[in-house]
Write a structure and sequence with these properties.
Length: 442
Amino acid sequence: MAMKITVIGLGYLGATHAIAMAELGHEVIGIEPNPKRLGDLQNGLIPFHEPGLPEALQKVLEKGNIKFKENHDEESFEADMHFLCVGTPQLPGSYAANTEYLHAAIDALAPYLREDAVIAGKSTVPVGTAAELTAALAAKVGFVPHLAWNPEFLREGTALEDSLRPDRIVIGVNDERSEELLRKVYEPITDLGTPFLVTDIPTAELVKVAANSFLATKISFINAMAEIAEVSGADAVKLAEAIGYDERIGNKFLRNGIGFGGGCLPKDIRAFMARAEQLGVGSAVDFLEDVDQVNLRRRNRVVEIAQSELGSLSGKKVLVLGAAFKPDSDDLRDSPAIAVAKLLLAAGANVMIHDPISLENVNAQHPEFDTEQDLLAAAQGAEAVVLATEWREYRELNPAHIGAVVANRLLIEGRNALPVADWQNAGWRVIALGRNVHAAAN
Ligand code: UGA
């Protein structure tokens, strides 16, 4: 049954959630104070790159069950549910998450909150945040609000699909009303057989950071194996394939390379360490510091390889293929590709960045880099090419074509996504992270 809901904060998570909720038939009011983001959405545009989302937004705008506003107004009072989707970025100079936007969101909602309405937090938060928000809100409104936690597991690049067909829905609740409304809101999804887990609130808060910590650990595990492989002549790609056949291990998230980045995994593991420390159990997640350090070391490895191959990088042109933290995204937050480009620049290289869709963001946020939209023009005269983001365009690249314009056919494979043998056959010297690929080819 259709419900009236607000979605507060329309970044990646909120915009996708709002559109997904409208697609399920609910009547959605999206609240976003950022004028550029708001204007884009009101005009039917998605302010970031996410496959399938622009079409879905058009559809629900035409259907008429979604609208976007700068602030709450009387209409918010009619809503049965409010989803909190604001960001919780890393605090500058600290590992901890900044939860001030959540506090601002509940302050703004307070005057329009009905006593029987339910608030569901979706943002990734330190465990204990929901209790803090509930107390702060109760002091403002004079009743104990129904506040639940409902973590979101969507991935950039497949955000809408992940929202509409998730692996599971998790809700952390304190009261029956919250469970009842959350069950109702997700009914069209759970009717398809999606597992629906009801937990207490701290567990629901922890589920998200635990899941992201596990994923980050898995990637750093294989990157640690890559470090060993590189000095022992082993091949971490084959190793991952071999261990991945064990169902208990699984083959996903075992791709070694320049590591994880983005707006979630890096900041979530750090915020988890900070929160555990506050709770007096910091040592329980000490290993996440190593997960972080392994991850950061892989970025430096690219520069070490470039230097060992080319000597001083001073004035040498290096082409970095990819800027986004992963393909099908234009998100540069903590992007390993940008981090590698920065390290190369610091080592004196003349860095050129190519990316199929993110160059506008690169030019705006990192004006220190040269960028070029045309791939062959970008490659002209390069002494090394670094694969930093495994866009399909690069995976399908003809190595002879790009080989014809570079000054030196050296490929540093930072994502283990290219057909090494084809590149070698086209005369490229390929050095892939974690692989003894001077000799071997896949
Ligand atoms: C991640 C989680 O996967 C989502 O479940 C979660 O909802 C989301 O964070 C969030 O907290 O909101 P996302 O940041 O979109 O999603 O990106 P991932 O697909 O997890 O990739 C993260 C990074 O790991 C990328 O830089 C990717 O290149 C890297 N990666 C991934 C590897 O280096 N190796 C792999 O095998 C897999």
